[in-house]
Amino acid sequence: MKQIKYGVLLLLLFWVAYLQADISLVLTPNGTKKTLPVVKLEGKDYVSLDEINTHLCSIYKVEYSEYTDFRVMFFFSGEQFIFLLNSPFYTFKQNIFNMQYPFLQVGSYYYVPSTFLLENLPLHFTGQIQNKNGTLYLPKPKDKSVRRVVIDPGHGGKDPGAIGPNGTRESTINLNVALRLKHLLEQELGLEVLMTRTDDRFVSLQDRTKFANDNKADLFISIHTNASHTNGSQGIETYYLSTKSTTESRAVEALENSVVELYEGAGAKQKYEALDFILMDMLQTEHLEHSNNLATLVQHNLVAGIQTKNRGVKQANFYVLRGAFMPAILIEMGFISNPEEEVLLANPQYQDRLAQSIFEGIKRFKYNYDRIRLTS
Ligand SMILES: [Zn+2]
User: Which parts of the chain register pLDDT below 70?
Assistant: First the structure.
């Protein structure tokens, strides 16, 4: 009995020691408790920037050039800090501050001394952040960064989309690239990725957008391949919504919207043309600037990664983009109607490259967008 008591006491001691090592956070006003793990580096207490990002919705960006020291820009609670590698000094609002111990890198991780959080932050955010006996009280962060992405592989089920001269189905290519992109976004950026379909099934255009809205997605990425009567057409183009189409984009718009008449039954077209849907366009209107930026970055990275004809960023009135309450784009990854591009599109390595290039565009967008949103 005595031994058990002694064991429990020992366990309790370890537990207390463990608690003391980490930094306790209390988010005001609702009092949510969190813990930032502390690690010992060079005999001092440190916290990784990634842990701070996870718990406090901050972001950081590593910058190095031959003209400057190795710097890390850290965006926290609407402000920017600049850390210098191996230096205890950092800048904040054009002033230089000292956090006692140097900013460190171990492998691909970056660490600030605990003193930065416990002593410096309360000074920078007087009245907002307080250190009460080693527990940090700070306002609950507003997470406005890109965290959840909906990928929409076009067509599926009874609607195969465009079919190539050798019988390749657009719906299959779209899904294959979408699944690869999902994997990259999850593995490389830790994003939550939801798919409007993960197998060969039919989903109406309206349900695809509704799915993204219902799940409060931060981005909507619709993936398609193009088709043209002239089988020499080639290249990649990326779209975002417009209610006024240019003549050039009208053919692609008609192609992608034709799903409605072909597969969603009688009266479906009238439904999409109805007033409430036109009002729904206003939801996307609010995000058009970001949709344009996202389309531009994805298109740029696709053309660079694939080395194909750049057909540019375009606007069209795609039903699937209407009513999306988030930045939303539709990618036409090449012409399945062109026998040469059809062969490429069906090739798994080529699909990897497409997914990788789209991923690079989204990654770049996320960095810009998160920074704007976190500092505004
Ligand atoms: Zn399509």
Answer: 1-20, 67-68, 231, 243-247, 274-283, 372-376
Is the Cβ–Cβ distance between 321 and 294 less than 8 Å? no
Biggest CA pair distance of the chain? 88
Q: How far is the CA of 257 from the centre of ligand 1 (A)?
A: 9
Distance (angstroms) between ligand 1 centre and the Cα of 98 equals 56
Q: How far is CA 181 from CA 176, 219, 279, in A?
A: 9, 13, 32
Which pLDDT score, from 0 to 100, does residue 211 have? 97
Strand order in the sheet with 23-28: 32-36, 23-28, 135-139, 130-132
Rounded distance from Cα 202 to ligand 1 centre (Å):
13
- Reference 99, options 115, 111, 110; nearest CA is 115
Q: If you measure from the C-alpha of residue 267 to the centroid of ligand 1, how many angstroms do you get, rounded to a whole number?
A: 21
Q: What is the pLDDT of residue 327?
A: 94
| Token output for 100 | 């006692």
Q: What is the pLDDT of residue 356?
A: 98
Measured between alpha carbons, how far is 256 from 250 in angstroms, rounded to an integer?
A: 10
Reduced to 3 states (helix: H, G, I; strand: E, B; else coil), residue 176 is helix
Kindly list the structural domains of the chain, giving each domain's residue range(s) and its CATH number in brackets, ordered by start: 22-139 (3.30.457.10), 148-374 (3.40.630.40)
Model pLDDT, residue 19:
47
Place of tokens 């608690």: 19
The alpha carbon of 266 and the centre of ligand 1 are apart by a number of angstroms equal to 20
Q: Please give the distance, rounded to the nearest whole angstrom, from the Cα atom of residue 125 to the centre of ligand 1.
A: 50
Helix (H) or strand (E) holding 21: helix 2-21
- The pLDDT score that the predictor gives to residue 9 is 62
Distance from the alpha carbon of residue 162 to the mean position of ligand 1, in angstroms: 7
Predicted pLDDT at 287: 86
